Amino acid sequence: MYSRCALSEADVVLLKDFLNNYTLEKVSVSAVSSPENASAHVRFFCNRMLKYVWDETFQEFRLLKGMDNGETKLSDLLDGAEGFTTVEQTRLLEYYGLNSIAVEVKSYSKLFVDEVLNPFYIFQIWSVVLWSFDDYYYYAGCVMFLCILSMSTSLYQTRRQSIALSELVAASATQTITVLRKNGKQEEVNSTHVVPGDIIVLPSHGCIMGCDAVLLTGSCIVNESMLTGESVPVTKAPPPYSSVNYDVELHKRHTLFCGTEVLQTRFYNREVVKAVVVRVGYLTTKGELVRSILFPKPMGFKFYADSMKFVLLLFAAAVAGMSFSVYLYMSRHADVETILLRTLDIVTIVVPPALPAAMTAGTVYSQNRLSKLGIFCISPPRINVCGKVKLVAFDKTGTLTEDGLDFSAVIPAVNGTFSEVVKDASRLHVRAPIVAAMACCHSLTRIDGELKGDPLDLSMFLATQWVLEEPGPDTSRYDTLSPTVVRPLAVKPLDSDDLDKLTLIGGLLEMPYEIGIVRQFPFISSAQCMSVITRDLGSPFMRVFCKGAPEKVIGMCLDSSVPTDFHQMLTHYTSTGYRVLALAYRNLEPSVTWRHAQRVKREQIEVDMFFAGLLVMQNTLKPETTPVIKQLQKARIRCLMVTGDNILTAVSVARDCGMIPNGDTVVNLKLVTAESNSVDQVGL
């Protein structure tokens, strides 16, 4: 028996979730002290793999978080990069628990109990018992056989896929990590023993991240396909020194996520590549993903509610029939056994007991088909929900269309006027601003000697026939003063021995044309563009190049540099399915130094730019796109496209794949002003 009391005295807490479901959790008291109070004990309980700790200040249980608690600033992460002593780490390990994500595989007995407690199976067993009393053995035996067979198959499939999921989650989860202690020494520890605040050393050959960590020094190239599905490597860099609170989503460009693969690391000035652990276990991004699989949100579908109403309606009809049967049998003076058997038999006729077995058989068959496609399902009833899907939303690039893009053309702009369309970018003058923009404005890097990066960037750069050179081998030390360099293919890299061979023209040295990429501002969806700060070899000033959505880029440019027929040219290519990007540039003042370039905000340099031209890329449909769309439409499932590309490009792709039938009119709705509440309708 339980009685209500103050939370501060509770031995058991009653939890109510947002769906009004109740659960009981036991409150434990740990002898380990908290990081804030070394002399206090900790009261806590665990629910759905998360730990809730008693907060004396607020007199409530609060979710135990890592360093993403809303109070840790970026400057705190950078200043506190000294690590813990072994004693401090042991105490924190007892407080946070092991850094592990373990998926429980239920035994057959537990799965059997969960399955048998299903109301339909209880009703089925009750019906079989009832028929046995009525000497209805053959049909009862058949139903019982189907019940046992479907239940056994369901238990086997569920347990097998639970094991597969557990093995998938546990893959590469346990490994050895190098931790930097407060005395400056490095120590090898098991990855399950790291805690928030630990300073870990990332190996040059890469690794699988066992926790969420913020990069402190150096840079990393990471494959995040396990989390995002995107196969393009992502470059991670340390965050700026700022008083802004650390936020995982806001600062994901500086965060290495658990489960992702670090392909390579690079370090500066003989320093090792270090990162500070911010989240462990189920608090990590991978942990959240696994929790969403283990504890899916209940789906309230009208179909399910209507089904329950229908069953209740049938039961009400059965009750009415039972009442009338009882009246008839009693009026004829039938014995009690006959009355019970005949009246209860009505329920088994109105509500068919074999229905659960038939439903389970279909579900198990579907589950087996999904498993052959590599899709795990540990909650078979959810498969039935998929039968009610009426709409499917697709991403465009990489889903409906190929991952890669093919270079189609470039349209330079000079003094506010478009030049002729150029199909071969290598024909342009190497010193043309649009060529330099194509060669510099990207996030490409070399991994094992091969260029890697966004397919669009790769196609754009290869079209210039330039060469990208990084200082030193992939994983070796390189100094920040030696940036990545791009140069035309015909130009040889400049060595110190070549200085004597330089030609003196008019009192000036004729320097080989090379461009060093001083700093990158990576593409972010909110900005719709990326930019780089560069310096030409021998140039007294730096330049900024920008690439992004045309509507966004021209907003950064001087009006005089944008051609008057810009929108007509853009519409011409986007309406035929091409992906179009705009390029722009500007020269920085000679007073801007390398140090200033590393600290300047992108908003300060992405202004007063000169429009350089348009880059036209072709993104072809995948061969399987159109057949799949037709198959879904045949099943009366509506298909939508969700994309950040130009709307005309999206409409063209939708027509090509059959998502929009030929001849249908597409209407583009645009809000003119908030005051007038008027809407401009434009037919496409």
Automatic annotation (TrEMBL):
<dbReference type="GO" id="GO:0046872">
    <property type="term" value="F:metal ion binding"/>
</dbReference>
<feature type="domain" description="Cation-transporting P-type ATPase N-terminal">
    <location>
        <begin position="79"/>
        <end position="131"/>
    </location>
</feature>
<dbReference type="InterPro" id="IPR023214">
    <property type="entry name" value="HAD_sf"/>
</dbReference>
<dbReference type="GO" id="GO:0016020">
    <property type="term" value="C:membrane"/>
</dbReference>
<keyword id="KW-0472">Membrane</keyword>
<feature type="transmembrane region" description="Helical">
    <location>
        <begin position="136"/>
        <end position="156"/>
    </location>
</feature>
<dbReference type="InterPro" id="IPR001757">
    <property type="entry name" value="P_typ_ATPase"/>
</dbReference>
<keyword id="KW-0597">Phosphoprotein</keyword>
<dbReference type="GO" id="GO:0016887">
    <property type="term" value="F:ATP hydrolysis activity"/>
</dbReference>
<dbReference type="InterPro" id="IPR023299">
    <property type="entry name" value="ATPase_P-typ_cyto_dom_N"/>
</dbReference>
<dbReference type="Pfam" id="PF00122">
    <property type="entry name" value="E1-E2_ATPase"/>
</dbReference>
<dbReference type="InterPro" id="IPR004014">
    <property type="entry name" value="ATPase_P-typ_cation-transptr_N"/>
</dbReference>
<dbReference type="InterPro" id="IPR008250">
    <property type="entry name" value="ATPase_P-typ_transduc_dom_A_sf"/>
</dbReference>
<keyword id="KW-1133">Transmembrane helix</keyword>
<dbReference type="GO" id="GO:0006874">
    <property type="term" value="P:intracellular calcium ion homeostasis"/>
</dbReference>
<dbReference type="Pfam" id="PF00690">
    <property type="entry name" value="Cation_ATPase_N"/>
</dbReference>
<keyword id="KW-1278">Translocase</keyword>
<dbReference type="InterPro" id="IPR059000">
    <property type="entry name" value="ATPase_P-type_domA"/>
</dbReference>
<keyword id="KW-0812">Transmembrane</keyword>
<keyword id="KW-0067">ATP-binding</keyword>
<dbReference type="GO" id="GO:0019829">
    <property type="term" value="F:ATPase-coupled monoatomic cation transmembrane transporter activity"/>
</dbReference>
<comment type="similarity">
    <text>Belongs to the cation transport ATPase (P-type) (TC 3.A.3) family. Type V subfamily.</text>
</comment>
<dbReference type="InterPro" id="IPR006544">
    <property type="entry name" value="P-type_TPase_V"/>
</dbReference>
<dbReference type="GO" id="GO:0140358">
    <property type="term" value="F:P-type transmembrane transporter activity"/>
</dbReference>
<dbReference type="InterPro" id="IPR023298">
    <property type="entry name" value="ATPase_P-typ_TM_dom_sf"/>
</dbReference>
<dbReference type="Pfam" id="PF13246">
    <property type="entry name" value="Cation_ATPase"/>
</dbReference>
<dbReference type="InterPro" id="IPR018303">
    <property type="entry name" value="ATPase_P-typ_P_site"/>
</dbReference>
<dbReference type="GO" id="GO:0015203">
    <property type="term" value="F:polyamine transmembrane transporter activity"/>
</dbReference>
<keyword id="KW-0479">Metal-binding</keyword>
<keyword id="KW-0547">Nucleotide-binding</keyword>
<dbReference type="InterPro" id="IPR036412">
    <property type="entry name" value="HAD-like_sf"/>
</dbReference>
<feature type="domain" description="P-type ATPase A">
    <location>
        <begin position="175"/>
        <end position="293"/>
    </location>
</feature>
<protein>
    <recommendedName>
        <fullName>Cation-transporting P-type ATPase N-terminal domain-containing protein</fullName>
    </recommendedName>
</protein>
<feature type="transmembrane region" description="Helical">
    <location>
        <begin position="310"/>
        <end position="330"/>
    </location>
</feature>
<keyword id="KW-0460">Magnesium</keyword>
<dbReference type="GO" id="GO:0005524">
    <property type="term" value="F:ATP binding"/>
</dbReference>
